[in-house]
Amino acid sequence: MTKLSVLFAVSLSTVFAPQVLAQPAMLRDNTLTIPQAASLDGDSPVYYANVQLNANSDGSLTVIGGEQQNLMAVDTVQIMLMESFPVQVSATVSGNKSVPCVNLLPAAVSRKDSVFTVVMAETVLGPAETCIAVLEPFETSVSLDVLGLSAGTYTVIVNGVSAEFTLDSDNVGPK
């Protein structure tokens, strides 16, 4: 695995395996293990499980391991703006799991300027597991942190599928 910037996978999904809930990062023997992470470096996002980072004497971290996960096949992204103030925004994502026996992993959400990038992946089957090879549809909702954003048009990209929304006014909460 090459050097990558790591985006902690913060889940706001509503459908995922119970075993992926509440797994904190763990530091043991100078190695930091992060349960889920996404890399946004390069041409397309990559989702990892069990990322291991070694702490260097200068305070930097070196990636020493991780398991690349399959990205979800996303068909559509629909944006929902809740009529409240401040406005709340979520992306309803639908597509297909590769097989019915896998689960959605927590979505990794990042924003740079006016673009939200959401990376969604699925669990992998164990070496002794088998599953019928048919696509299984999924639909889930991912909340987007829009508090404090200025009025304007924003793009949401989920595994390469885009949608846009517009905030008609600055989204600042009550003081």
Would you write up a description of this structure?
With about 180 residues, the protein is mostly beta strands. The protein folds into two domains: about 5-70, no CATH class; about 70-165. About 0% of the residues lie in helices and about 50% in strands. The strands form three sheets. Strands 1, 2, 3, 4, 5 and 10 form a six-stranded antiparallel sheet that branches. The protein has a four-stranded mixed sheet with strand order 8-9-12-13, with no helix packed on it. Strands 6-7-11 form a three-stranded antiparallel sheet, with no helix packed on it. The relative contact order is 0.21.
Brief digest:
This protein has 175 residues and is mainly β.
Could you name the key traits of this structure?
single chain; 175 residues; mainly beta; 6-stranded antiparallel β-sheet; 4-stranded mixed β-sheet; 51% strand; flat
